[in-house]
Amino acid sequence: MSTLICFFHKLTEAQKKKLLGKLRVEKISYLPQDLQKIWSNIPPEMPYVGEFILPIKKWLKKNVQAGDYILVQGDYGATYQIVKCDFANNCIPIYATSERKTIEKTDNGQITLVRLFKHVRFRVYEKKDFCR
């Protein structure tokens, strides 16, 4: 059994059930609040993010064990950095996939778009290089 560390919003009950069942995760935890604040507020004008998220990388190195799952989504560059860090720590980086539907409603000449997201599965980031 392993731990899952979540890098984004609180998980739904359906997502928790999938993690606890299919992936055999024993415990679900989140980044400490100070690190979540860093993760959630990466400045878009910053040319590189590696140094900015260094506290998160250091925390991971101290707090994960081989075989732990890391659910990471967010800023693309920061996600890339964390996934590389996860592989270096022999962890399993994953992300959530969802089905998206858009419903268009017309009322009194105005159009309202409603976006629905339904969780489908968790997918493992692939380490294997397919760019040959």
Rg from Cα: 17 Å
Averaged pLDDT: 91
Question: Got a strand count?
Answer: 5
As for the number of domains, it is 1
- Largest sheet descriptor: 5 strands, mixed
Class by SSE composition: alpha/beta
Strand order of the largest sheet: 2-1-3-4-5
Q: Helix count, per DSSP?
A: 4
Could you give the distance between the termini? 35 Å
* N-to-C order of helices and strands: EHEHHEHEE
List keywords for this structure.
4 helices
What does this 3D model show about the protein?
It is a single chain. This protein has 132 residues and is of the alpha/beta class. The protein has one domain (2-124). 30% of the residues lie in helices and 34% in strands. The chain has four helices and five strands. Strands 2-1-3-4-5 form a five-stranded mixed β-sheet. Strand 3 (69-71), helix 4 (76-88) and strand 4 (92-107) form a beta-alpha-beta unit. The chain is globular. The mean pLDDT is 91.
